[in-house]
Amino acid sequence: MIFLGIINPSFGEFWYYYITDVRGVSQISFGLLATIGTFGVLSGLFIFRNYLAGKEFRTLLYISSFVSFLGSTMILAFVLKENKVIGLGDSVALEIQSLVFGSLGFALNTFPLLILFARITPENQEATMFSFLNGVYCLSQNVISPLVGYFINYNFLNVTRDELATPEYLKIAKLQIIFTIVPFFLVWLLIPNENEITAKKSPNKR
After folding, report:
1. What is the mean pLDDT of the chain?
2. Cα–Cα distance measured from residue 106 to residue 3, given in angstroms and rounded to the nearest whole number
3. Confidence at residue 80, expressed as pLDDT on a 0 to 100 scale
4. Burial bucket for residue 203 (CB in 10 Å: 0-12, 13-18, 19+)
5. How far apart are the first and last CA of the chain?
6. How confident is the model at residue 206 (pLDDT cuts 50, 70, 90)?
7. Rounded CA gap, 121 and 124, in Å?
8. What are φ and ψ of residue 76, in 5° steps?
9. C-alpha distance from residue 58 to each of 123, 133, 187, 190, 194 (Å)
10. Distance (Å, rounded) from C-alpha 83 to C-alpha 58?
């Protein structure tokens, strides 16, 4: 889980200042976007409970990675102002991004991990282990991931708040897409499917 925060750096603060300082979205509107995003979490819970709960863990990781990739692609399209080409205003485009790819993606990323936590927690140690694993996950997503994003920007991109015009933020948007592609390869390399797990559990036949 710590590794998850390293390979998925967060650039959330840059995104906030880009849409408020460069694109002119008010702080009130930004707060409304967060409120709208809660419905995305509920939608993600509904979709996961009714359509994805029975899927194997590897498939769920592929789906969550794909949703993250679509969200980063939409951010790139927003930075390039492609939303205006198809007649979508900035507010509508941000609402779609926040509702569909932001909160829904968060839900599809989080629920599979919660199920994994429940499966690997030893009996009679549920409260302690689940709290520990959840704390490590929060540390990874809320502390390590932003720190890695800051480190990358400070050492390689050098984008500041005063330089968040479209050409500069475009560097971050493109980098985000690259980092959403990486998990596809890691899941393929590191996470076994159900058949492989069953084969390893089965006793060797002579």
Report:
1. 83
2. 18
3. 92
4. exposed
5. 38
6. very low
7. 9
8. -60, -40
9. 24, 19, 7, 10, 8
10. 33
Both structure tokens of 29: 């509107």
Which amino acid type is present at position 94? L
Q: Decide: helix, strand or coil at residue 165.
A: coil
Rounded mean pLDDT, 145-161: 92
- What's the token pair of residue 16? 């906030």
CA 18-143-141 angle, to 5 degrees, is 85
**From CA 9, how far away is CA 146, in angstroms rounded?**
6
Mean pLDDT value of segment 105-125: 76
Q: Are 57 and 169 in contact (CB under 8 A)?
A: no
The residue count of the chain comes to 206
Tokens, residue 203: 């006793």
| Alpha carbon distance 97, 118 (integer Å) | 30
CA atoms within 13 A of residue 156's CA, in its CB half-sphere:
8
Domain boundaries, the chain: 2-187
Residue 202 has a pLDDT of 60
Q: Which among 78, 86, 93 has a CA at the least distance from the CA of 176? A: 78
Q: In Å, how far are 6, 27, 118, 129, 206 from 43, measured between CA atoms?
A: 28, 25, 22, 28, 50
3-state helix, strand, coil in the chain (%, to 5): 80, 0, 20
CATH match of 2-187 with 2.30.29:
no
Residue whose tokens read 């006793």 = 203
